[in-house]
């Protein structure tokens, strides 16, 4: 893997020993282990990604879900209130007292009959997991609370990320609220939505905009972090994924610990899908669940690396030995053809997903499938989520659009319980929403038609009325009748 390896050691002031957890290479053939207080983003020996692993003989695993219900009853304690640290027993990589929280994870699992009908399942079967309710407005806060905590644990002074927007918003928020570390943010040019950019700037992060896209920003930030000893919080960081496991714990909590049939999630860098797979695999190992749900990862058609590799090229985890030649060949072709990711769903506009191998493993554990959806399908689904729920940003709606396709294909049955993860808040990207609903043909062309979106079937247009009482009353009486 390019840019893999160790970051320069940050000086440890005190020796830290936290024996229940360690970092482990995900390649079963290698399996190298590293202490939990080391800072690295890849295995020294073979370059693979790292996992956080636990030694359950040194720390007692939770025996039943009741542990977490008891914590909620003690929610006056910020670590019990946090939707991440309430589940600390399932991610015990550092002492809970030192974990950083800004109140993340107060999310909602909402049953939406309207979206259920759109997707094609029975009305009470479609659940929307609203991760946009997090402090910075996206699921990234789950992972950031964990990575930021680890950064503090090892004494980092600065933390950095490359971002399509939400990771930077989240890092900037944790930095501004806690004042523990300075945030350094790398973004591509012209690719970030205003909602997200405004957060990074407003929270006072050092924001570096480079010419290029997310993948360019990602390789630069890794170089810079290594050079300057800055702590990297991208989802290549295995601690981040530990925090993101808790999204699944909260889904289970909301279902009174019943396992759903399907988890449907948009796929960008594949951190979420990787984390979800690990969450369920571990719960199954610990005996807290007896069945693992199936996973569907949804790419945007304009950024469909995972879809192409898995569904078109048959790449599989294959017991930790995925077909590296085939993967490399795919990327070489992509570069040779000058193909760059392009989708209205900017949060998943990614060419080379950093967690590809972990996601292949998650697909194996969860009997997963991958689908791609067009920007048209994404925006139509997004309008349905808005009209029948609480709204979401474009990338999030890929989950709903993907679920609809899987029902049509007969892969998801109408009476199966489906959870779509809505990864980010509606207000993250108002440009896409307004362009869809607007009258203004020029604006529609500029923002949407240029991406192959031809019509806005579910547009809710503003009604133009003269400033006249009788006219207004007439419109309301006519339009109000449904
Ligand atoms: C980051 C992000 C994604 C992609 O998640 P991955 O874990 O990188 O696959 C999807 N939706 C939103 C809103 C995001 O911010
Ligand atoms: Zn290794």
Structure description:
The protein is of the alpha/beta class. The chain has a single domain, classed as Rossmann fold. The chain is built from 17 helices and 13 strands. The chain has helices spanning 66-73, 78-81, 113-119, 140-153, 166-178, 194-202, 214-228, 238-254, 271-285, 305-312, 324-336, 356-365, 375-388, 394-408, 430-437, 441-447, 469-480; strands at 21-25, 33-35, 50-54, 108-111, 126-130, 158-163, 182-187, 206-209, 231-232, 262-266, 294-300, 369-373, 418-422. Strand 7 (182-187), helix 6 and strand 8 (206-209) form a beta-alpha-beta unit. The longest helix is centred in the middle third of the chain and has 17 residues, at 238-254. It is globular and about 75 Å long. The structure holds pyridoxal-5'-phosphate and zinc ion (ZN). Residues 138, 140, 166, 235, 266-272, 347-348, 393, 395-396, 423-424 line the site of pyridoxal-5'-phosphate (PLP).
Task: Give the tags.
Rossmann fold; single chain; alpha/beta; 17 helices; binds pyridoxal-5'-phosphate; 13% strand; four-stranded parallel β-sheet; globular; disordered N terminus; 482 residues
Ligands and ions found: pyridoxal-5'-phosphate, zinc ion
Low-confidence stretches: 1-16
In N-to-C order, the SSE pattern is EEEHHEHEHEHEHEHEHEHEHHHEHHEHHH
Strand content: 5-15%
Number of domains: 1
Structural class: alpha/beta
Q: Which CATH-level-2 architecture? A: 3-Layer(aba) Sandwich
Largest sheet: 6 strands, mixed
CATH class reads Alpha Beta
Helix run count: 17
């Amino acid at each position: 893997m390019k840019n893999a390896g160790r970051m320069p050691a940050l000086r440890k002031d005190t020796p830290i020993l936290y024996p229940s957890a360690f970092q482990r290479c995900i390649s079963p053939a290698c399996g190298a282990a590293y202490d939990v207080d080391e800072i690295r983003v890849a295995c020294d020996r073979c370059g693979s990604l790292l996992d956080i692993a636990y030694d359950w003989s040194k720390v007692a695993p939770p025996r039943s879900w009741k542990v977490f219900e008891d914590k909620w009853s003690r929610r006056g304690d910020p670590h019990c209130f946090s939707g991440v640290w309430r589940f600390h027993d399932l991610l015990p990589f550092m002492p809970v007292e030192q974990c950083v929280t800004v109140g993340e994870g107060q999310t909602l699992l909402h049953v939406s009959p309207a979206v259920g009908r759109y997707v094609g399942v029975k009305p009470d079967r479609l659940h929307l997991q609203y991760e946009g309710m997090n402090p910075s407005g996206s699921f990234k806060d789950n992972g950031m609370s964990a990575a930021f905590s680890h950064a503090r644990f090892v004494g980092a002074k600065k933390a950095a990320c490359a971002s399509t927007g939400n990771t930077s918003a989240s890092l900037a928020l944790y930095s501004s609220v806690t004042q523990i570390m300075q945030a350094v943010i790398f973004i591509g040019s012209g690719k970030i939505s205003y909602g997200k950019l405004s957060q990074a700037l407003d929270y006072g992060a050092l924001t570096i905009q480079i010419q290029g896209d997310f993948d360019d920003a990602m390789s630069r930030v890794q170089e810079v972090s290594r050079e300057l000893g800055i702590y990297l919080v991208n989802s290549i960081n295995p601690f981040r994924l530990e925090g993101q496991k808790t999204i699944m714990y909260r889904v289970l909590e909301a279902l009174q610990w019943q396992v759903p049939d399907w988890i449907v999630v948009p796929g960008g860098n594949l951190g979420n899908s990787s984390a979800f797979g690990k969450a369920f695999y571990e719960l199954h190992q610990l005996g807290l669940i007896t069945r693992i749900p199936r996973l569907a990862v949804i790419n945007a058609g304009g950024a469909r690396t995972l879809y192409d590799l898995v569904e078109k090229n048959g790449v599989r985890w294959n017991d930790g030995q995925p077909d590296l030649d085939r993967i490399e060949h795919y990327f070489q072709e992509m570069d040779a053809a000058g193909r760059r990711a392009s989708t209205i769903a900017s949060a998943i506009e990614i060419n080379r997903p950093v967690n590809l191998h972990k996601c292949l493993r998650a697909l194996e554990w969860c009997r997963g499938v991958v689908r791609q959806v067009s920007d048209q399908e994404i925006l139509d689904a997004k309008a349905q989520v808005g009209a029948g729920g609480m709204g979401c940003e474009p990338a999030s709606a890929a989950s709903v659009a993907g679920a609809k396709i899987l029902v049509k294909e007969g892969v998801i049955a109408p009476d199966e319980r489906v959870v779509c993860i809505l990864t980010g808040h509606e207000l993250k990207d108002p440009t896409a929403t307004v362009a869809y609903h607007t009258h203004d043909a020029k604006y529609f062309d500029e923002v949407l038609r240029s991406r192959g979106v031809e019509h806005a079937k579910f547009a809710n247009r503003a009604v133009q009325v003269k400033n006249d009482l009788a006219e207004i009353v007439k419109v309301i009486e006519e339009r109000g009748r449904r």
